[in-house]
Amino acid sequence: MSERERQVMKKLKEVVDKQRDEIRAKDRELGLKNEDVEALQQQQTRLMKINHDLRHRVTVVEAQGKALIEQKVELEADLQTKEQEMGSLRAELGKLRERLQGELSQNGGEEPEVSGKPATEADGKVGL
How many domains does the chain have? Predict the structure, then answer.
């Protein structure tokens, strides 16, 4: 082999070695990128699961909120009905007191006897 051929062979070997080193570096870089992609995919999967769970929780909380609103409306309606009943009972109690006072006035101040006991205001009192 001539000197020129040796130099060409040496140069070609250097080029091949350099390309081999570049390929190894690219392989390492590609491996790191693949690891990053896998980590990101795992993170994406985890976040998708969290998102799914949160959406489910939101749906449950919204349903609970609607149920509570309906319950509040029902309780307010019941309260209004009870307040109306209380008003009616108070009015009726007032009328009964007036009638009792009228009867007391007609009887000369004596309290009428009911079941063997004198009737007092405390007997007919409703805890209002």
Answer: 1
